Amino acid sequence: MASGGAEATAPLLAANNGEPRHRRNTFAFACATLASMTTILMGYNLALMSGAQLFIREDMGLTDEQIEVLSGSMNVFMLASILAAGWTADALGRRGTLVLANAFLMAGALAMSLGSTYAALMSARFVTSVGVGLAVVVAPVYTVEISPASSRGVLSSLPEIFINAGILLSYVSNYALAGVGWRAMFAAGVAPPVFLAAGVLAVMPESPRWLAMSGRLDDARSVLLRVSDTVAEAELRLDEIITHAAGAAARHDGGGVWRQLFVRPSPTVRRIMTKVMSLHFFQQASGIDVIVLYSPLVFKQAGISSNTFVLAATVAVGVVKTSFILAATLLSDRLGRRPLLLASTGAVAFTLASLAVALCVASPAASVASAMAYVAAFSVGLGPLAPAYGAEIMPLRLRAQGASVGTAVNRVTCGVLSMTFISLAGGISMAGCFFLYAGAAVAACVFVYFSELLHIGGIVGFVATVVQSK
After folding, report:
1. Distance (Å, rounded) from C-alpha 321 to C-alpha 318?
2. Is residue 453 left, alpha or beta, with left meaning phi > 0 and alpha meaning psi from -120 to 50?
3. Distance CA 154, CA 164 (A)
């Protein structure tokens, strides 16, 4: 911004003499990391049921139908908070919403560890889902809004990395606490949200975009100076935020965001929303949460009888999944989104088909190997890039609500698959289920190939088109 620029920047420029440039990005990295760490608890609470269900079933005498509803219900329960997350993030700020999410996560973990009836466990899952829904929408939005252009690709992958870290932690917890009981597995998730909420309040600044849109331009500029590579970049980012916000207000005359998304969307917004929702659908239709939630049952079906060996194989799957999500952060900016997505969806289809074949011949080793190859293929592309697109390509005014819509599609698809897997496997066999999911992955590969959103130029080119069309 021009106003006050010379006076405000002079002290900072003087202080920066001789200071390594990368230190500016260190603060942005710390903020993005802290925000994204809340999603660890999403992965932990979601996947903990994979091993805990083996013991809950025996302890409480639950049926297969009750187990699959208890395991998958969180994906449906969180729809309310996902759809409300955009409004909440705009009303309370990104930081306040993350604190609220951690409060629900703490309460849900405590209630789950103390639940003595099926109804109590379902209620606890609902409480947990509220926190998960808020975190899974707001963490990626905050991360994109706080990140400098030079590291946005890497930092935007952090929420997905931490979700996978949470999944791995849940598998390790299942294995380590199997002799103690399932209540201890859930009780282990009570304390972390308290520390994360305290860290958010103590360290993280509010999103500069939210500050600017709330009229707090001086505060927004102060944050941007800390999270940008240079003073010039900070000024440019603030000017862009103000220009886009003013243009949106002038174009829409104060109209509601939901009306702009669905009732009277512009052709560009319609195209963006179609691509965002399609990617989220295909991400889950390929069956990733079936593996996350039911890999112990899959491995038992393949011929592994010992609970200890089943849980150990699940930990191995979790290690591979987390390792390859880290590889994706290094490759997404170097190779581009479209090549990674094409390779990922094609490999997902192949490995799902190989898992189905391994189940047909009841080969434990081949089943575990195929499951590991599947999560590797998923994590290197389709897993992290679908939510990153949702946060990156939405216009500023529509970003929080647009991201929540994409996440809602993601969770509905996941809920349908996770709450029907046991019943569907009883009808068409587990192998049949994975052949079905392989077909969805083939459709995803075709979609990526023909989608103009994902061609050469990727996010940057498409966002430039969006800005010009406005």
Report:
1. 5
2. alpha
3. 15
List, for residues 300-321, the tens digit of each pLDDT value: 999 998 889 999 999 999 999 9
Contacts of 107 (CB under 8 A, 6+ apart): 127, 131
Average pLDDT of the segment spanning 225-238: 89
Sign of the CA dihedral 233, 234, 239, 242?
positive
User: Across the chain, which distance is largest between two alpha carbons, in Å?
Assistant: 74
CA-based radius of gyration for the chain: 22
CA distance 98 to 76: 20
At 151, the pLDDT band (50, 70, 90 cuts) reads: confident
Backbone angles phi, psi at 253, to 5 degrees: 50, 40
The identity of residue 266, as a single letter, is S
Of 413, 418, 351, the C-alpha closest to 378 is 351
The pLDDT value recorded for residue 105 is 95
Q: Which domain holds residue 339?
A: 5-469
What is the DSSP code string of 274-325? HHHHHHHHHHHHTTHHHHHHHHHHHHHHHT---HHHHHHHHHHHHHHHHHHH
Q: Percent of the chain at pLDDT above 70?
A: 86
Residue 398: phi, psi to the nearest 5?
-105, 5
State how far the Cα of 166 lies from the Cα of 174, in Å rounded to an integer.
12
Q: Which pLDDT does position 259 carry in this prediction?
A: 77
- At 20 the three-state DSSP class reads coil
Structure tokens at 58: 């025996």
Other Cβ atoms less than 10 A from the Cβ of 239: the count is: 12
Q: Is 229 exposed, middle or buried (0-12, 13-18, 19+ CB in 10 A)?
A: middle
Over range 26-38, report the average pLDDT: 89
Residue 395 has pLDDT above 80, yes or no: no
Per the structure, the count of domains in the chain is 1
**pLDDT of amino acid 115:** 93
- Integer Cα distance of 276 and 216 in angstroms: 30
Contacts of 91 (CB under 8 A, 6+ apart): none
Nearest Cα to Cα of residue 188 among 58, 52, 301, 70: 52
In this prediction, residues 160-181 reach a mean pLDDT of 90
Question: From residue 388, how far is each of 11, 138, 264 by CA, in Å?
Answer: 36, 12, 25
DSSP state of 262: I
Q: Residue 324 maps to which CATH number?
A: 1.20.1250.20
Residue entry with tokens 């021009």? 2
Are 74 and 128 in contact by the 8 Å Cβ rule? The answer is yes
